[in-house]
Each structure stands twice: as structure tokens, then as C-alpha cells.
């Protein structure tokens, strides 16, 4: 089945409100095996709303609207829906009773001002709103399903979760389940080439690549009658991908590189400290976002100046004079220095040129050295990152975390 999502409200068109409802609904519909090919935003105008819903029904069996269910004259979504299906609006006594209870009043003026919200298209399904004054509505006639939901995200989500999800599940008889494989240290194009035969030949489940700044993703998506059937379809494809790209895979689904590394450190009880220059504390911030990291994360210092590198970490002055602050040698001494002074199993360091100025032909903007001391072993890697200052710092941080992850796997 196909569905279209329509957000109604001039405030969304003007940018006063971010349309998070569409994102939520698209994910929920995908999980139910319902395809969403179009989304739109329409202002509070009867003619345009009518046109938008009518056009949506030419391409989809289901149309879900959010917004336009308030008590004011420009809230007209329900009225347009009734007109589209040739239904009169009738007072729904249960909704009126709830409205009075929710507003905690019997004041005639207040009730009359909000009474509009208790009028429902005749013979439609009423979805009680336990978190607001406007109920949701389902009209299902002539192979067309119009689902009208309130605009406030909290109200919309609760009505969907309490009523709409099960209603649609009964209609479709299918569910969709996805497994996300998360990778780091490989580009999207290289990754796609390695599993090109899987991507091209996959029907059910399908396999699709995505790239974000923080990682590269392969999403395996299966459609079946149950979650168990989906899992059976996904498993062999996942195992084949893992056999090809295993060295780059750090996690699945909602995992993050920060979370995975922190979890590994805690599980192995490996203490760590960080000495950062160009990243300015981002490595430490990434690790301490994980609950329980205090068991292993001992200290993080930002040694931006040469003097700090010498006095705090024990970097040799002759090293800085001969090789410079941005060098393999300095990164190595920083990593060793923080581990020794903090008395930790692991020391990680960064030194580089984040830009936008300060680079040279020999040492361009984006040059970063990452040092790692772990149980007596020292590893230093050189990187040349593209992007602005914040991108260079973020990419250096992620690569430092990935270096820690890979070394922990070898222990």
C-alpha cells in the first residue's frame, strides 16, 4: 500500500515550526510496510487543502494529515475532509464531555469556543486524544483512507501509537524490519563496490547504502508477515556482508562509535586518558557522554600550547623544535605522556591544523596526527582531512575513537 503525508499549517510554511511529524510518520509507515512516495506542506486554506488531499488520493490509498484541528476559524482540516467525502459534521458527545473534563470547566463561553473540535464527520472513526482537546479521525470509504491527526507532536504520536498503528497493521498484514550495519574507516563508494553484487541482486530483503559524516551505513530491509520471518530473511544477507566488510563494522542499528568504544573500555576495564590539541576536548566529551565511563576514563587535558605539552605531558622541547607541534613525534610523546602521568592503560592524543589558517605547503590545513599508547605499544597515524575547522576536529575525533576500537579488538 502507498500513503502520503500532508502537514497542514501556515506556520510550517513560514518556518516558524519544524515539521517533525512527517519524519516520525514516515518511519512508522515504513515499519508497517507502507510506502511513502510523497510528503507535502499546505497552508491553512480550504481550496489548497482540498486540492492537496484530492491529488494525494490519485497516487495513494492512504492520506495522513497533521494539523488544522484547533478551535479557531483557520483550523479547517476536518471540515475539508468531511466535504471531500460528502459527510456532514455531527456533534460527538463523548468528545464534548472529554473536552469539558480536559479544560476543567463548564463555562459556557469557553465550551462554545472549543466546541468546534467535538464535531466529527458522520460515520467516521473517532480516535480519543488523551493529551489534548482535538480527537483524531479516520474516514475509510471507497478504497480511500483519510487519517486526520492533530498537529502538536506529542498528541499526534500518542494517537498514532494508541490507535492508528494497529488499525493500519490490520489492513496491510505486513511489517517491514530493517537492520542497520554501521561502519567506519571506509568510504561509501568503496564499500558499495565491495558488496555491489549483494545490493544489485537483493529483492527481499533489499540492501541500501547511506553515508553520514560519522559513519557509513548499509541498511538491510525485509518485508514479511511477522518479525520472525523478517529476521530469517535478514540473517543470511547480514552474515554475507559481515564476511566481506567485517573489519570496518563497529556496530548495528542505533549504535554510535562513541558508545561502542566506551562500552569496550568498560567491558575490558582498560583505563584511558586523553591529551588533545586541535580537537580541543572533543574526544573526552565523546567518551564522558557514556554512562558509567567514570570507571575507566581518568583524565582529559587540552594542551594547546607548546608550553603545556612540555610541562603537562613531558613532550621534549627538542622534539618540538626539530619536528614541530604538528608531527608524528609530538603525537607519540603526547600519548605516552598522558598515559604515564595519568597512570592509565591507554593514552590518546591529537595534534593538527584545523584551520582555516595556519597551514603551509609542508603542513596543510587538515593535517592531523593521532597518537595512541596502549599497554606499552605506541601507534601514530597521519590524516589529511577535508572540510572546515569543525569538520576537521570532528573527523579527527571519530578517527581517534576508531583507532582505540581497533586496538581493543586485538587485545
UniProtKB/TrEMBL annotation:
It comes from the Bacteria. Residues 4-170 form the MoaB/Mog domain. Pfam families: CinA, CinA_KH, MoCF_biosynth. CDD domains: cinA. PANTHER family: NICOTINAMIDE-NUCLEOTIDE AMIDOHYDROLASE PNCC, NMN AMIDOHYDROLASE-LIKE PROTEIN YFAY. NCBIfam families: cinA_nterm (TIGR00200), molyb_syn (TIGR00177), PncC_domain (TIGR00199), PRK00549.1 (NF001813). HAMAP family: CinA_B. Belongs to the CinA family. This is Putative competence-damage inducible protein.
Amino acid at each position: 500500500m502507498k500513503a502520503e503525508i500532508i502537514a497542514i499549517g501556515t506556520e510550517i510554511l513560514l518556518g516558524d515550526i519544524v515539521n517533525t511529524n512527517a519524519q516520525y510518520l514516515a518511519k512508522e509507515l515504513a515499519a508497517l510496510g507502507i510506502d511513502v512516495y510523497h510528503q507535502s506542506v499546505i497552508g491553512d486554506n480550504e481550496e489548497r487543502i482540498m486540492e492537496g488531499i484530492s491529488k494525494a488520493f490519485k497516487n495513494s490509498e492512504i492520506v495522513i494529515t497533521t494539523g488544522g484541528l484547533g478551535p479557531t476559524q483557520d483550523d479547517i482540516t476536518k471540515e475539508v475532509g468531511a466535504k471531500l467525502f460528502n459527510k456532514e459534521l455531527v456533534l460527538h458527545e463523548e468528545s464534548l464531555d472529554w473536552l469539558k473534563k480536559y479544560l476543567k470547566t463548564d463555562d459556557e463561553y469557553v465550551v462554545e469556543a472549543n466546541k468546534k473540535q467535538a464535531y466529527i464527520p458522520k460515520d467516521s472513526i473517532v480516535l480519543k486524544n488523551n493529551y489534548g482537546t482535538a480527537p483524531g479521525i479516520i474516514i475509510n470509504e471507497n478504497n480511500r483512507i483519510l487519517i486526520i491527526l492533530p498537529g502538536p507532536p506529542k498528541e499526534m504520536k500518542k494517537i498514532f501509537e494508541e490507535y492508528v498503528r494497529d488499525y493500519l497493521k490490520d489492513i496491510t498484514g505486513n511489517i517491514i524490519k530493517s537492520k542497520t550495519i554501521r561502519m567506519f574507516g571506509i568510504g561509501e563508494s568503496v564499500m558499495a563496490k565491495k558488496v555491489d553484487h549483494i545490493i544489485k541482486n537483493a529483492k527481499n530483503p533489499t540492501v541500501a547504502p547511506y553515508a553520514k559524516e560519522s559513519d557509513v551505513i548499509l541498511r538491510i530491509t525485509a518485508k514479511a508477515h511477522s518479525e520472525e520471518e523478517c529476521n530469517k530473511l535478514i540473517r543470511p544477507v547480514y552474515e554475507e556482508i559481515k564476511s566481506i566488510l567485517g573489519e570496518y563494522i563497529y556496530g548495528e542499528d542505533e549504535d554510535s562509535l562513541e558508545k561502542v568504544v566506551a562500552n569496550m573500555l568498560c567491558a575490558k576495564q582498560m583505563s584511558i586518558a586523553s591529551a588533545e590539541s586541535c580537537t580541543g576536548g572533543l574526544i573526552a566529551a565523546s567518551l564522558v557522554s557514556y554512562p558509567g565511563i567514570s570507571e575507566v576514563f581518568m583524565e582529559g587535558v587540552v594542551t594547546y600550547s607548546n608550553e603545556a605539552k612540555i610541562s603537562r605531558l613531558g613532550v621534549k622541547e627538542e622534539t618540538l623544535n626539530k619536528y614541530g607541534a604538528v608531527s608524528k613525534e609530538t603525537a607519540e610523546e603526547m600519548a605516552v605522556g598522558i598515559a604515564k602521568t595519568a597512570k592509565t592503560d591507554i593514552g590518546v592524543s591529537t595534534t593538527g591544523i584545523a584551520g582555516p589558517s595556519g597551514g603551509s605547503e609542508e603542513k596543510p590545513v587538515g593535517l592531523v596526527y593521532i597518537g595512541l599508547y596502549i599497554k606499552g605499544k605506541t601507534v601514530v597515524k597521519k590524516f589529511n582531512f577535508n572540510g572546515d575547522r569543525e569538520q576537521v576536529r570532528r573527523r579527527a575525533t571519530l578517527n581517534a575513537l576508531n583507532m582505540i576500537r581497533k586496538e581493543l579488538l586485538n587485545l
